[in-house]
# Entry
Amino acid sequence: MRRVAILATATAVMFTVTTVTTSPAANALTPPNIPSASTASSELAALTVDVERNAGTYDRDLFPHWITISGACNTRETVLKRDGTSVVTNSSCAATSGRWTSPYDGATWTAASDVDIDHMVPLAEAWRSGAYAWTTSKRQSFANDLTNAQLWAVTDNVNQSKGDSDPASWKPSLTSFWCTYARAYIDVKYEWGLTVQSAEKSALSTMLGTC
# Structure
């Protein structure tokens, strides 16, 4: 069955598979350690500006995920529980019910299958920005990073539209989220020692200007 997103104005519309509404991105739960705008600005200034390299050698399997975090719960399931509300899981840690608001587009979902876990800095982007030189162990840590604001529960097709794009070529449709997006994106690149392209840095600076 094909999902149809509805921009709700008065009442939520119930579907047999999922419920879709829109709500402000501010209602979404967020990952930890998102820096202030001033800190992010300092971090952006400290990033090395360089061209991307080794795009043709990228392979998603070089970033092992999702890994077990605790008990039966892997990284995806951990983020779904962290960023959702009233999340119920079964004995395998799979979410059987809950509510997730995607900060990228403001849509709210009640089926975990409609939610992707997005890497704020895409894996392919990280590869081109320096991760090609990392060990597989370090790339695994990056792909499952729960310490920084790298993993976000978002609408699945929005995540797919982002793909491996950096902010020079893709930004969330909700301009009200640009400030948070830039702060998180910059911090991940800073914490992991990744480079930025000139156009990417300019786009991030513009997004910080909305803070």
